[in-house]
Amino acid sequence: MDTLEKLFEATLRDVYYAEKTILKNLPKMAKKANSSRLAAAFEEHIEQTEGQVDRLEKIFEMIGKSARGKRCPAIDGLAEEAGEIIEEAEDDTVRDAGMLSAAQAVEHYEISRYGTLAAWADKLGMSDAGKLLRETLEEEKETDAKLSKLAESEINARAEQGDEASKGKASSKKKSTGNRHASA
Known about the structure:
Elements: H1 4-32, H2 36-62, H3 73-88, H4 92-123, H5 127-183
Helix pairs in contact: 1-2, 1-3, 1-4, 2-5, 3-4, 4-5
């Protein structure tokens, strides 16, 4: 890339790919959520993400390019991490905490991308594109704040209780195993 305009387009393709990937993963996360509030947050973000994809497609039109994504290893890694959490978490409340954390990692990635793209759009004299990008940026920040509030008010506390219960079960197993060997 030899111009800011080309870098803008490449980054736009990157975030378009990211949003499309997120649209594939959010329904899975909503379905796996134990907390109804977390499931609702994921469902709400699906609708929001669809609007963000529409905005990106408008920006592609503005710059006279086709709307297509460019593979983004960062978002692929974050999606893979979320998948591992879903598969490996043995406690539903711990899974919720992990999925929420993974969702926030994606939000932080998107916040950085949209902030950069908005600044570049302004620099390139694309004020309409910049306005659309800032609209999405604000939505991403709001989603991150909602997820933080949900984590602090409910999800993390439930995960901690679930973790404590698991430790209690493990401790009981050790005691019963120990008692059995002692009586033998």
